[in-house]
């Protein structure tokens, strides 16, 4: 049984179903094309990082189960899941619950909007978890995080409740999509007595202003 899993959360790259903020400037079709390229890039980096040592999962939204499976397996994922409804925090938490159920010992969660992502970034995160790190975060330029990783101690048994609190916030709910996400998550980790391993900062591509960085 593979004890490590990397999950990429991605929307189906179709006009009107992804990158709505980017579509304001580019239009729906071009925004969807950007999403498709970003997702393909993320999956390529993830395949290199996972090799035969970790399961690569594509967690999708915006299409039905059969279509999602065809798309994800065609992109090289080992497994395809639907993200389900709810806030980003709830959808991330759902992946931790699935990992516990499947007896996964190391779990990485990333998005699909990372032009700078390299296999080496993901390998570094896996190495940190192998070295007994409980929690790994990849800070994003916009104040969020591009990666969150959980070690065995946070996935199994009662400690999974501790992991859930990272998505709920410490003194107030996480303001998903804001520049406060990373700091609120670090505050929640501190409240739970968790040491955090930080990776290199990376920029994501979500808004028209982000696209100018890559032109």
How helical, in percent, are the residues?
40-55%
Number of strands: 7
Estimated radius of gyration? 16 Å
Q: Average pLDDT value?
A: 87
Uncertain stretches of 5 or more adjacent residues: none
% residues in beta strands: 15-25%
For the record, what is the CATH homologous superfamily label? Spore Coat Polysaccharide Biosynthesis Protein SpsA, Chain A
Q: What would the principal axes of the Cα set say about the shape? A: globular
Summarize the helices and strands and which ones pair or pack:
Layout: E1 4-11, H1 20-26, H2 28-50, E2 55-61, H3 65-74, E3 79-82, H4 88-101, E4 106-110, H5 119-130, E5 135-139, E6 145-150, H6 152-155, H7 160-168, H8 181-191, E7 196-198, H9 208-212
Parallel strand pairs: 1-2, 1-4, 2-3, 5-7
Antiparallel strand pairs: 4-6, 5-6
Helix pairs in contact: 1-2, 2-5, 4-7, 7-8
Commentary on this structure:
The chain has about 220 residues and is an alpha/beta fold. It has a single domain (about 5-210), classed as Alpha-Beta Complex (Spore Coat Polysaccharide Biosynthesis Protein SpsA, Chain A), CATH 3.90.550. The protein is about 45% helix and about 20% strand. It is built from nine helices and seven strands, in the order E-H-H-E-H-E-H-E-H-E-E-H-H-H-E-H. Strand 2 (about 55-60), helix 3 (about 65-75) and strand 3 (about 80) form a beta-alpha-beta unit. Helix 7 (about 160-170) packs antiparallel against helix 8 (about 180-190). It is globular. The protein starts with a strand and ends with a helix. The model has no long low-confidence stretch (mean pLDDT about 85).
């Amino acid at each position: 049984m593979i004890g490590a899993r990397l999950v990429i959360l991605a929307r189906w790259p179709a006009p009107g179903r992804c990158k709505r903020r980017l579509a304001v400037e580019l239009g729906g079709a071009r925004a969807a094309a950007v999403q498709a390229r970003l997702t393909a890039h993320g999956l390529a980096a993830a395949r290199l990082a996972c090799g035969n040592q970790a399961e690569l999962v594509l967690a999708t939204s915006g299409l039905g189960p059969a279509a999602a499976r065809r798309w994800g397996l065609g992109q090289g994922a080992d497994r395809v899941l639907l993200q389900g409804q709810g806030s980003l925090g709830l959808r991330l938490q759902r992946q931790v619950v699935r990992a516990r159920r499947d007896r996964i010992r190391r779990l990485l969660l990333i998005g699909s909007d990372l032009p700078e992502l390299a296999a080496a970034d993901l390998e570094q995160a896996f190495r940190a978890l192998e070295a007994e790190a409980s929690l790994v975060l990849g800070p994003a330029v916009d104040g969020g995080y591009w990666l969150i990783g959980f070690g065995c101690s946070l996935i199994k048994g009662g400690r999974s409740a501790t992991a859930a609190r990272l998505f709920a916030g410490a003194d107030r709910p996480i303001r998903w999509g804001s520049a406060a996400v990373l700091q609120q998550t670090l505050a929640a980790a501190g409240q739970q007595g968790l040491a955090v391993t930080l990776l290199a900062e990376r920029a994501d591509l979500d808004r028209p202003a982000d696209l100018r960085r890559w032109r």
